[in-house]
Q: What sequence folds into this?
């Protein structure tokens, strides 16, 4: 059992449903005990230049990834 799990999303654009990456970190006793990362193919290939400048993820990096529903 973990003390807590954090989830972080990166989005392709300003739409809340445009997740292109998800990271999970599990913590137990103040130690990171598990890390997972998933690229996500968002509903549209529209990547905002500002978002890409922040996280560095492009459509080419996620185009063959599963959708959020597939990964979740």
A:
């Amino acid at each position: 059992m973990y003390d807590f799990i954090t989830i972080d999303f990166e989005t392709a654009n300003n739409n809340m449903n445009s997740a292109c990456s998800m990271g999970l970190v599990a913590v137990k006793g103040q130690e990171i005990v598990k890390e997972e990362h998933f690229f996500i193919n968002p509903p549209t290939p529209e990547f905002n230049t500002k978002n890409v400048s922040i996280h560095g993820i492009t459509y080419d990096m996620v185009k063959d990834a599963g959708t959020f529903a597939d990964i979740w």
Remarks:
- The longest helix spans residues 49-55.
